[in-house]
Every structure is written in structure tokens, then in C-alpha cells.
Specification:
The complex is a heterodimer of chains A (about 150) and B (about 425).
Chain A: H1 3-8, H2 11-18, E1 31-37, E2 42-50, E3 56-64, H3 67-80, H4 85-99, H5 109-115, H6 128-144
Antiparallel strand pairs in A: 1-2, 2-3
Chain B: H1 12-16, E1 25-26, E2 29-30, E3 32-33, H2 44-56, H3 67-86, E4 95-98, H4 101-113, E5 122-126, H5 135-144, E6 147-151, H6 161-167, E7 172-178, H7 190-199, E8 204-207, H8 211-214, H9 219-222, E9 226-230, E10 241-245, H10 247-252, E11 263-266, E12 271-273, H11 287-301, H12 305-323, E13 329-332, E14 341-346, H13 351-360, E15 363-364, E16 366-368, H14 373-378, E17 384-388, H15 395-412
Parallel strand pairs in B: 3-15, 5-6, 5-7, 7-8, 8-9
Antiparallel strand pairs in B: 1-2, 4-10, 9-10, 11-12, 13-14, 14-17, 16-17
The chains are: A alpha+beta (about 150), B alpha/beta (about 425).
Chain lengths: ~150, ~425
């Protein structure tokens, strides 16, 4: 297999897509949003429990989609849990830079290490939207998704 | 071809040589183009004809008295006659040039159906329509209270003609149906559909964007009211298509776009319109593209169409047989006599992941909902992977697809 494909479909990504973390609806979510990619028809719903201080106390997602979108959503829930709004925003911006192949040095070293597996997507511009769907949906949930 | 005319063979390898793009590579692999259902590649004669025309005879049409304008007008009107002949229409003025199949159908919606439509009037359509043959009718539902009557397909993707017949009632104002599904490959029995609709006094529009590519169309034999085609799927350029419409309908239809070319007379307080087809061709038309479309139709018509169809069916049958070895793959659409389109769903593998891996093997397929979301819903899938075959594809292309699928399975599962 060529290197770009190997980078894209790394074991970590396939593992997340086959066994997504924090998968399934959340009862009593404080925020919720549905994301939709009209290109492929993929849908993702992100559920949040935001604390009084805005911190992501709990996060879950459900939906159907390609390996990239599912893995990205799964990793996102892993990484966002416990973060404050400002930290989440910073992480998201760093992630968006990373998958577009831009300078992602604003990410902390730990985050960069975790997200490194998603870096291969930058070689597949047609697939960047798959990776960003869950993150944009998270942002929508925070900003407009109060239940 | 050197073969005697009565021996029906089609040499795909020779046809391939006419398509320069097919000899290129992607990612260092030979291009295997299996996305002609989205847009076909163009033979050299189309590209050359457009270039030569633009370089030697181009001007605006129907306007100037000068030499080039007359020359360009001749070519534009000759292109109309080429389309007329391609569809076996009775008259050249029954061919309206549009920017594509979508515009052709929107023209019927706006100019034919909308003016007389009453709330509760019905439009009968199938669940396998492309969005271009759905959304124009949704417009009429939203704006004028039309009711869309959906006709289901069977599990194999074939159309239930009795269900369609039953859906045509006293309030039906139009049957809008594809000639060939862009997802399932299902070919609809247009002649039968038209006969049944006409028996109830209902006109029929066919979306022929796929159908006209793979079968010889005779609008007079079909007795169909409207037939829409697009150039870029017929090995021609983008930006041009055509609507065939019966003269009697066209004469009654209101204009669509307003502008130059489509008028008889304009004053400060009055306007009168040109006769069809000019009435529906406001503004400067796609002139170079019309000449390219004519070249494409001439190119296609230069082959024995039945032999081309047989070749495409052979590819489909071979591909269908080959994918049968994958028990993780479900073909969507197995209607008898279907056209050369193979859509499928792969267990545990999303269409976009499959298409990305195939792409790196040089194999171009379509992944997604194919602008046919009601059909995706009908079959309970969010998306499919689709290989569509054209005259220039070969069994080697199918082999590359099969090898790519096996490889994708290895990577993803």
C-alpha cells in the first residue's frame, strides 16, 4: 500500500472507527447538535453535558459515516472531556490546522502527539470535511445547542 | 472499423485511443475511469471541433449580419438538427438548447406545469429519480400546493409499472420519470409508461441524462412529451443540454428566462415573444458547446449503437459476476435489462473510504448519495459506491476495480 494510504488508515484510526469511544445518545444532555455532510450524506450527533463553568463534563456522539469521520469523532470525545471552553476552542483550532496541513504548533505537545495520527488526512483534501464534521458539530452544540 | 457492417462488433480498444485522457496516470497508476455516469470523458474529435470552430468561425449567433455571425449561426442551428436526428424528433424546432438536463427539467416545471397548476394537482415520480427530477417538482409543491405521488421500485430496483399506473389519477398533471437510474442502472419501460399515462390524458417527461447515452432514443416512437438530455454525459462538453418537447406543448409554454434572443418585439409598455425554440433560449447560448455536442453525437452515432450497448452490458455482467466473489458486498439494483451501472454497499466499509483507496489505485468511482437521497432512504443506506461503465471501458478496468476492492478490504478490515 502506498505511504499516504498507510498514513491515512493507521491502526489507531481504524481502531477508533471500529470501536468508537463515548458512542451513543446521552440522556439529559445540556447541549446537542446534529452535523451533516451533504457530500456523502453522513450524519453525526454530538451530546454535551456542560458544567456551570462551561467545562465539558461529559460528551458523547452517535452517527454513521466513514472511518475517518467516525475515528475523528471518537478521538474528539476522548480529548474534549474535562476541558474548559477556551481549551476546547484551542484544541479545535489546532486540529483544523493539522488536518489541513497547516502550522499546528499552537497545540500542546501532548495534544499534538495524540492527534498526529490524523495528520495523514492533509494529503487527502477531499476527505478533510470527513475529519472536521464532528468538531464543527461540537462547536454548534456549544454555541447554539442548549436543550 | 474494418469489419463488415452486418457483423456487430465494437472495438473498445480502438475507441479508447480517441480519448487522450485515458492514457494518463494518476498516482503513478494507469487511470481506470469508472465515473462516466457522473460525467463522461470527451473524444479528441469533440475537443478538436470546439477548438477549430472557436478559432475559425466563432461569433455570436442570430445577431450580426456579418460573415462570422452567419457561419456561427449555421453551426448552432446545424447542432440543433444533430440533436433532432439523435432523438428522432419530427422537427428541429422541438429541440430547445439548455445548459444541461437540470435546466431542461426546470424549464418544463416553470413554463409548462406551473402556470396551470392548482393546489392538490399531482405529479407522479419514482423514488429512483435524480434530484434534478425531484427538486423542480418540490418547488411546485412548496409554491403552488402540488402533491408529489411517489412510485416505489421493487427490491431488485425494477419499476413496478402497475404501481405507477395506479398512481396516475384524475388530478395527475405530469409523470416525471427517469429513462435510466443513475444509481441502480434500472431502465424504465418508457413506451409502456407513456401509453398508460396518455390513456389517462397525462403527459410524460423523461430524464434521459443517462438513458440517451446507452440506448437509441426515438421520441416519436415513444410518443413522449418531454425528453431531457445533457451533453457532458454523452461524451460532449459541459454547459449544454437539450429539451425535446412536442411542438404543441412548446407553443403554449411561457418563457423561462427573459432577455435577448427570446423576444419578437419589446417596447416601454409591451413585450411579445419569439416562437419556440428561441423563446426559451434567452441570452447568448453556449455556442461553442453546441458545436461540441453535435460532434459528440456524431461520434457516438458513428458506432453501431447496439454493439456499443452489447459491449457495456458485457462489462456490467462481468463486473456483476466478479463482485459475486465478495460475500461482504451487496449490489443495489439488479433489475433485468439494466444499464451499465453497478452500485454497491460493502459491509463495514464506508463508500468514501473505499473510493479513496480505489482512487490511489487509479480507479475513479463515485461514492455518496448520487443526488438520489429518496432512493438511498428506500434502500436504507446513507451512500453507495458506484462504478459506471462507458464505451471506452474494458474488462481490464473491471479487473482493476475488483483488485482495488480486495485491497480496500485488506486495509480497512
Amino acid at each position: 500500500m502506498d505511504n499516504a494510504l498507510r498514513e491515512l488508515y493507521q491502526e489507531v484510526i481504524l481502531d477508533h472507527s471500529r470501536h468508537p469511544r463515548h458512542y451513543g445518545a446521552m440522556d439529559g444532555a445540556s447541549h446537542k447538535a446534529e452535523g451533516y455532510n451533504p457530500l456523502c450524506g453522513d450524519r453525526v450527533t454530538v451530546y454535551l453535558q456542560l458544567g456551570a463553568d462551561g467545562r465539558v463534563a461529559d460528551i458523547r456522539f452517535e452517527g454513521k459515516g466513514c472511518a475517518i469521520s467516525q475515528a475523528s469523532a471518537s478521538m474528539m470525545t476522548d480529548m474534549l472531556k474535562g476541558r474548559s471552553q477556551a481549551e476546547a476552542e484551542k484544541l479545535m483550532q489546532g486540529f483544523l490546522h493539522l488536518v489541513k496541513g497547516e502550522d499546528a504548533s499552537d497545540l500542546s505537545e501532548d495534544d499534538r502527539e495524540t492527534l498526529e495520527v490524523m495528520g495523514g488526512i492533509s494529503a487527502f483534501p477531499m476527505r478533510v470535511k470527513c475529519a472536521t464534521l464532528a468538531w464543527h458539530t461540537f462547536k454548534n452544540a456549544v454555541e447554539e445547542g442548549a436543550t | 472499423m474494418n469489419a463488415p457492417a452486418n457483423i456487430k462488433i465494437f472495438d473498445a480498444e480502438r475507441a479508447r485511443a480517441d480519448f487522450e485522457i485515458l492514457s494518463r496516470q494518476v498516482y503513478g497508476k494507469p487511470l481506470v475511469y469508472l465515473d462516466s455516469g457522473a460525467s463522461a470523458q470527451k473524444p479528441r474529435i469533440v475537443l478538436d471541433t470546439m477548438r477549430d470552430f472557436a478559432a475559425s468561425e466563432y461569433a455570436n449567433v442570430h445577431r450580426g449580419v456579418h460573415f462570422l455571425s452567419a457561419a456561427a449561426t449555421d453551426r448552432y442551428e446545424a447542432a440543433r438538427r444533430t440533436v433532432q436526428k439523435f432523438l428522432s424528433a419530427a422537427r428541429e424546432d422541438e429541440i430547445v438548447f439548455t445548459k444541461g438536463g437540470t435546466e431542461a427539467i426546470n424549464l418544463v416545471s416553470y413554463s409548462f406545469l406551473a402556470p396551470a397548476l392548482q393546489p392538490g394537482d399531482e405529479i407522479v415520480l419514482s423514488v429512483m429519480e435524480h434530484h434534478s427530477n425531484i427538486v423542480p417538482w418540490h418547488f411546485l409543491r412548496e409554491r403552488q400546493g402540488a402533491v408529489l405521488r411517489w412510485v416505489d421500485v421493487r427490491d431488485d430496483g425494477s419499476l413496478d409499472i402497475e404501481a405507477l399506473d395506479a398512481a396516475i389519477g384524475p388530478k395527475t398533471k405530469l409523470v416525471a420519470i427517469t429513462h435510466m437510474s443513475n444509481v441502480l442502472g434500472t431502465v424504465t419501460p418508457l413506451k409502456d409508461i407513456v401509453a398508460r399515462a396518455h390513456a389517462k390524458g397525462v403527459p410524460v417527461l423523461a430524464d434521459g441524462c443517462q438513458g440517451a447515452v446507452h440506448a437509441v432514443v426515438d421520441v416519436q416512437a415513444l410518443d413522449i412529451d418531454f425528453y431531457a438530455i445533457t451533453g457532458h454525459k454523452l461524451y460532449g462538453p459541459t454547459g449544454i443540454g437539450a429539451l425535446y418537447a412536442k411542438r404543441a406543448h412548446l407553443k403554449k409554454m411561457r418563457p423561462f428566462n427573459g432577455g435577448g434572443e427570446m423576444i419578437r418585439e419589446v417596447s416601454q409598455d409591451r413585450v411579445s415573444y419569439a416562437d419556440p425554440p428561441a423563446r426559451f433560449e434567452a441570452g447568448t447560448p453556449p455556442i461553442v458547446e453546441s458545436v461540441g455536442l453535435a460532434a459528440a453525437l456524431d461520434y457516438l452515432s458513428g458506432f453501431d449503437r447496439a454493439a456499443v450497448a452489447a459491449h457495456e452490458h458485457d462489462l456490467l455482467a462481468y463486473a456483476r459476476e466478479q463482485v459475486g466473489q465478495f460475500n461482504w458486498l451487496r449490489v443495489i439494483g439488479d433489475a433485468p435489462g439494466k444499464g451499465a451501472i453497478l452500485s454497491f454497499e460493502a459491509e463495514g466499509m464506508h463508500a468514501h473510504d473505499l473510493a479513496t483507496i480505489l482512487d490511489r489505485e487509479g480507479v475513479a468511482v463515485r461514492a455518496g448519495h448520487h443526488c438520489a437521497q429518496p432512493l438511498m432512504e428506500r434502500f436504507g443506506v446513507a451512500s453507495t459506491t458506484r462504478a459506471s461503465f462507458a464505451m471506452y471501458n474494458t474488462r481490464a478496468d473491471v479487473d482493476a476495480l475488483i483488485a482495488g476492492l480486495a485491497k480496500a478490504r485488506g486495509i480497512l478490515m
